[in-house]
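To whoever is on call:

I kicked off a structure prediction for a single chain this morning and the downstream step that reads the tokens threw a length-mismatch warning. I double-checked the sequence; it's 329 residues and nothing unusual in it as far as I can see. Pasting both halves so you can look.
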Amino acid sequence: MRIAVDAMGGDYAPELIINGAIQAVKEFNLDVVLVGDKAAIEKLLKKNQYSGSHIEIFPSSEVIEMDEPPALSVRRKRDSSIVRGIELVKRNEADAFFSAGNTGAVACAATLSLGLLTGIERPGIAIIVPNLKNISLIIDVGANIDPKPSHLVQYGIMADVYSRYILNKTNPSIGLLNIGEEESKGTDFMKETHALFEQSRLNFIGNVEGKDLFSGKCDCIVCDGFVGNVALKVSESLAETLMIFLKREIMSNFMGKLGAMFLRQSLKRIKKKVDYAEYGGAPLLGINGVVMIGHGRSNSKAVKNAIRFAAEEVERKVNDKILEGMKKI
């Protein structure tokens, strides 16, 4: 198993990206190919006292920055770490690719270079989120902001497969994110999408509302990329704000500090549940290859876990299962 990693992508690249890669090769049975500035990578590997044989370097001279237009930057920066890393997958020199860099550029480069699975018209970014019962999968959170109803049904199929073979869920339930639970709610687009889902063989439970994102009402939540991205960013901000509020109140007086001593383990478990780094990255589903997208501020732990999830997606042949699902549904 060889995972190509964009060493230059992310707010804390290349240091924390390389740290996470080192942790991954030490904990998991795989190799990593670090793509990027060779001199910088070698310097950081030496700093971390890593001299093993499970990390290789594939040099690239350019970096696609976060604020660059995706399609234009992919065409102009052919020697960027994102483009070169995906090319390794295309040439079968790597089994999967991970980047915490420009999400649009990763999606664009992957679509152009690797192509889409048969029957899939648009790729979708899926994320794992905690809920009151266990975890849920939300798709799409940013890859396709102007989809057709058929695209959302395809997302439902991919979510069903990923939940079965990666999240180990039997017959995962699927909900369509809407402004109300009733079948008649929403725009004509949502009503048409709802009708298509009902005609499918998926375990479709109907519309779900924003309040159900973390309730555990269903295993998979399907939405367009615009709505999904807004929901994701609001949720992240709310979680961080609540943790800050909680810390402020606890530290504001002696009794709060005393109580925190007894709640320390419980607070650690709560923090772990809402920590994005536990889930690593978001799979770009629908691509004819395995591509994992990380949060821009991915730390070493997030990188390590993203590499692990990418390897699991390869091992469990998720793309083959998606193709089977498309044929059935």
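Update from on-call: the warning came from a stale cache, not from the record. Cleared it. Sanity check on the structure: The first helix runs from residue 15 to 27.
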